[in-house]
Amino acid sequence: MDLIIRRAALVRSTGLVDIGIEAGRIAAIEPHLNASAREEIDANGSLVTAPFVDAHFHMDATLSYGLPRVNASGTLLEGIALWGELKPELTQEAIVERALQYCDWAVARGLLAIRSHVDVCDPRLLAAEALVEVKRRVKPYLDLQLVAFPQDGVLRSPGAFENLKRAIALGVDVVGGIPHFERTMADGAASVTLLCEYAAEHGLRVDMHCDESDDPMSRHIETLAAETHRLGLHGRVTGSHLTSMHSMDNYYVSKLIPLMREAGVSAIANPLINITLQGHSDTYPKRRGMTRVPELMAAGIDVAFGHDCVMDPWYSLGSGDMLEVAHMGLHVAQMTGVDAMRACFDAVTRTPARILGLEGYGVEVGCHADCVVLDARDPIEAIRLRAARTAVIRRGKVVSRSPAVRATLALEGRPAEVDFRIQR
Ligand code: FE2
To answer: Quick one: 108 exposed, middle or buried, by C-beta within 10 A (0-12, 13-18, 19+)?
Structure first.
């Protein structure tokens, strides 16, 4: 074997196992693997998981915080205006450099697959070209899937549909949209039809920013689900954000969720962003603005949590840590039951992997040897501690290591060290 991880706890089984890795794939998982390897890692009862996956990100804007100025109000609309100010000043080299730096952070956090939207409204397609280049360069260590995103509206922004098609021809993978940003509800619905028909014609996946608003009458997800069903796109379409659902009438939602389920539309909530941007103009009570995560999950719909932004015009914080995203999602959705907390871990690992259609994902024999050793014994402890990634493995090679978090104490009669785990 090339590598053996000994005494690993897995997400969905009890008892510790050894994981044998050969030629970039998982070759064996057994309680006591009778084999030797060039390298061994002793997990010592720690959780070994498949990598984190971020199903919703904006890599063309990441790490641009403060350029050309900061978002003073902290609102979505100032963020969009600020992005408009920054766009003319962007260079391909700067986008590539910032994106590569973010991918370094991602790898160190065990985040090895990202779906990033890329703005295609600028006819120069500077950002699309830059991110196609980044996708090529990070391929050995990170799967980057790109969405052609007409930030200013595919119908509202002149030439945006042509630009979107050119971006797809350049190597962008997925068709994006933003129906709630079109001029009218009718234009929003027409944009959904146009983009879904294009995706169906070309065999592409769809991921739209959909109803990222507190307006309960923003109902483009209904059109998206209906068009998915009509065009036979089941399992290939995602509605991102869906925040208006938070404010919708309950009777309407009781019809909407089964329609989404029937169409096989998945959902992505972005808890860090939507808890800060939505409900911003409310007085009190203030709406949380995140979509109805537990209700969608209970209906059997795939729901992932995305990071959306890190240090950009919309969000000043973040560091590529999907456990921080899961932690916030758990709190905002009040998903504090045992199964619910585990579902929050799935929402940053295997559920987004399914949404992206990643091949060979998982800690199972035959899968790619991509995994993360966490300084935690189970998914709930991992979320609670935002546990250190003591080893990150890609195709059988260790690509990042971090020290476990330990603090020394100088207290009479007390232990010399704490690790923040409950002693079992
Ligand atoms: Fe987004």
So the answer is: middle
Residue 381 annotated in active site: no
* Residue 362 falls in which region: left (phi positive, over 0), alpha (psi -120 to 50) or beta: left
Q: For residue 280, what pLDDT band results from cuts at 50, 70 and 90?
A: confident
Burial of 97 (0-12, 13-18, 19+ CB in 10 A): middle
Measured CA to CA, the distance from residue 252 to residue 328 in angstroms comes to 27
Q: What is the pTM assigned to this prediction?
A: 0.97
CATH code for the domain defined by 52-356 = 3.20.20.140
Give φ, ψ of 417 to 5 degrees: -145, 145
Q: Of 424, 272, 420, 348, give the one whose Cα is nearest residue 49.
A: 348
**Closest C-alpha among 61, 60, 142, 65 to residue 109:** 142
pLDDT single digits (tens) 316-337: 999 999 999 999 999 999 999 9
**What is each CA distance from 38 to 113, 258, 310, in whole angstroms?**
27, 51, 38
- Report which residue type is found at 200: A
Catalytic site residue from 40, 85, 197, 212: 212
Distance between Cα 239 and ligand 1 center (Å): 11
d(CA 260, ligand 1 centre) in Å = 20
Domain extent listing, the chain: 3-49+362-408, 52-356
Q: How far is the CA of 43 from the centre of ligand 1 (A)?
A: 36
Architecture category of domain 3-49+362-408 in CATH: Roll (2.30)
Instruction: Over range 400-423, report the average pLDDT.
Output: 94
What phi and psi values does residue 241 have, to the nearest 5 degrees? 80, -70
**What is the rounded distance in angstroms from the CA atom of residue 252 to the CA atom of residue 194?**
25
Cα-to-chain-centroid distance, residue 392: 18
Distance 321 CA to ligand 1 centre (A): 17
pLDDT digits over 25-54, tens only?
999 999 999 999 999 999 999 999 999 999
Task: Give me the pLDDT at residue 422, please.
Answer: 80
